Amino acid sequence: MNKVTVKEYRAANGGDYDFYKLSDGRVYWLWLKAPFRGGDAARVHVMSDDPTQEIGTVFMEKTNYGVIRMGFEGKGNVTEVPITINQEIRPSKRYFLDKIVRNLLIKE
Fold this sequence. Notes:
Structural class: alpha+beta
Radius of gyration: 13 Å
Oligomer: single chain
């Protein structure tokens, strides 16, 4: 079985959704609804390529020890993912969206 990877990424243009295409053909659109902005929590809305199918909203919460807890709201599954100290101090949107794609969407 081949490992699924991110084949294409396009950044949002003025408030749009970020675009991800995976090597297995799946397409996802991610929108940072509530960014960290100095806080410890963020929310990301996730849609598939089918506009009638909503994947859900992902919550992300920084912990005190270089780990981010993330999962889909209302589904109960929470994943802990390590993050770099640089991202702890100055978060990058793409870094965290990549974490969602690799740790939640690819593993579906």
